[in-house]
Amino acid sequence: MRLKTILTKIHFISGIVLTAFIGLHFFNHFFSIIGPEKHIEIMKLLRPIYRNTISESLLFLAVLLQLCTGSKLRKANQNTQSTPFELIQHWSGIYLAYFLLIHVAAVLIGRYFLKLDTNFYFGAAGLNSFPANLFFIPYYCLGILSFFAHLAAIHNKKMKVHLVGLSPAHQAKIILFFGMVVTLLLLCGFTNQFNGLDLPDAYAIFN
Ligand code: HEM
Prior knowledge:
This protein has 207 residues and is mainly α. It has helices at 3-30, 36-50, 53-76, 84-112, 120-127, 132-158, 168-190. The structure holds protoporphyrin IX containing FE. Protoporphyrin IX containing FE binds next to α1, α2, α3, α4 and α5.
């Protein structure tokens, strides 16, 4: 088997592992719209699934493989991207690599150096402190959008059939639109547009 085929397969499989976690992660984040307490209640139900030695080792391995194979594939495909969806896949992949590196490192620093529970308030800290939010709002929004954009581009490439009369390209555009709605809702949830936010002192890292 050619090296590029092997890399593509590893990238695809680690991507599926990551997508399964991110699906749970966003499901949890949706509850931020109801309020921090509900978000934390759901997090406590989900943590046993993803925060144990086996799941976390698998998740970190998936992040590592995704970043390594992604950067190799980017170099191999450097001169071949031409359609809008190929360009979306390329640039969203680059941003996701940057986002995942910072995000996972931040969670580990929060957990092991700052000795914080990396819960809702940890995510909300940067989004609700000025001037840190000038970085964190675009950083998180682009992270969520890039995830859906990457998914949409892959869907467009792999999907071969029409669904309810919609072409693969139309289906991919719906995924992109859904990603925009999710981004807006999570931004509202984490800045608590609906409930008002009272950041505990321990999480006032950016004040
Ligand atoms: C609104 C946007 C986001 C916020 C506020 C957020 C917040 C958080 C928090 C608080 C944790 C720690 C979870 C825990 O300790 O139980 C976490 C972990 C993580 N997040 Fe996010 N996240 C966001 C978006 C994303 C996106 C877009 C991705 C991937 C593309 C992602 C990937 C991860 C990963 C891989 C972990 C590590 C899981 C672990 O082992 O604890 N997150 N995030």
